[in-house]
Amino acid sequence: MEQNPLKILVVDDDPEVLAVASASLEAEGYAVLQAENGPAALDVLHENPDVALLFTDIVMPGYIDGFDLAERAKQLHPGLRVLYTSGYLKDEGVWEGSLLVKPWRVEWLRDAIKDALA
């Protein structure tokens, strides 16, 4: 019996980053869902309760940044794992999850995803 691939939701307001991350993770065998902002990501999470990992940019336009998104996502799916990414942070706060600093390399992304899912 073939096992379904783990679902990862990739959230980034930069279309190029979204495309590269998604293609890289699909090549690793993950089922990838995409969203360009926090509200769209919450819609995807409502429709897909089996998402295993949220890979989200922290700084995004609009009223839901990556931290807010992760908090709301974990309310919907308490077992959800989170991996953040950012090129800069407004403050060095403490949060639950790991950070992959931009600009990242595909190899770093693969390793960070594996670590986050372990």
CATH level-3 fold name: Rossmann fold
- What is the CATH level 1 assignment? Alpha Beta
Number of helices: 4
Name the poorly predicted regions: none
CATH architecture, by name, is 3-Layer(aba) Sandwich
Q: Spell the H/E element sequence.
A: EHEHEHEEH
CATH superfamily: Response regulator
User: What is the global morphology?
Assistant: globular
Major beta sheet summary: 5 strands, parallel
Domain module count = 1
The strand line-up of the biggest sheet is: 2-1-3-4-5
Structural class: alpha/beta
Give average pLDDT, whole number.
90
Tell me the distance between the termini.
Answer: 23 Å
Overview of the structural elements:
This protein has 118 residues and is of the alpha/beta class. The chain has one domain: Rossmann fold. 39% of the residues lie in helices and 23% in strands. The protein is built from four helices and five strands, in the order E-H-E-H-E-H-E-E-H. The chain has helices at 15-27, 38-47, 66-76, 106-117, and strands at 7-11, 31-35, 51-57, 81-86, 98-101. A five-stranded parallel β-sheet has the order 2-1-3-4-5, with helices on both faces. Helix 1 links the parallel strand 1 (7-11) and strand 2. Helix 2 packs parallel to helix 3. The longest helix is centred in the N-terminal third of the chain and has 13 residues, at 15-27. The radius of gyration is 13 Å and the shape is globular. The model has no long low-confidence stretch (mean pLDDT 90).
